[in-house]
């Protein structure tokens, strides 16, 4: 059994790892646990993700597990400035390799979710029925319409007004959808296998985590 540290951007991703990803990876001889991204001061500043913050935090966490990876949103990067997802991932890995001693680069796997964690939930919009205060035929139809508009959920646009989380907020009445409360529940209801079928980047990442063991 190997221990895999998954550095998470926020509490939603932490809960997703606990309830969905960790149980799945146990079947592949990998004990995955989340680690919430924090600043040097120890405080968590959700949404303020930068390459340097990840390099510093992951370098400090590297020797606390057998393998280390991330689950952070592309949309939330403060310093992406025209960089692609792959460029950011490579920059993070190169920074960690330079910063720590006695490393094995094969066991460092930065992963950036396109465009947000919420995109995964569009793998099956019916999972949003867990938002009991806002679920009805109209919201169901609107969610399915968004999912049908794109080749896969990971292609849902990242403009400020059309990011997955903004679309969800516009569909549900204010306060009825809670990212931390409902996000992991919806993902668990949909299931890892169904999400992987619809989200190729996520599927590739999980496949790499499985092969680690």
Could you explain how this protein is built, in words?
- This protein has 9 helices and 5 strands.
- The model has no long low-confidence stretch (mean pLDDT 93).
- Helix 8 (192-198) packs across helix 9.
- Strands 1, 2, 3, 4 and 5 form a 5-stranded parallel beta sheet that branches.
- Helix content is 46%, strand content 12%.
- It folds into 2 domains: 2-116 and 193-212, Dna Topoisomerase Vi A Subunit, Chain: A, domain 2 (3-Layer(aba) Sandwich); 118-191.
- It is an alpha/beta fold.
Gist of the model:
With 213 residues, the protein is an alpha/beta fold.
Mean pLDDT: 93
Q: What's the architecture of the largest domain, going by CATH?
A: 3-Layer(aba) Sandwich
Q: Counting H and I runs of at least 4 residues, what is the number of helices? A: 9
CA radius of gyration is: 17 Å
Main sheet, how many strands, which sense, barrel?
5 strands, parallel
CATH topology description of the largest domain = Dna Topoisomerase Vi A Subunit, Chain: A, domain 2
The fraction of residues assigned to DSSP E strands is 5-15%
Oligomeric state of the chains in view = single chain
What's the CATH first level of the largest domain?
A: Alpha Beta
The shape, in one word, is globular
How many β-strands, per DSSP? 5
Q: Which structural class best describes the helix and strand composition? A: alpha/beta
Helix and strand run: EHEHEHEEHHHHHH
- Low-pLDDT sequence parts: none
The first-to-last residue Cα distance is: 7 Å
Number of domains: 2
The helix content, as a percent range, equals 40-55%
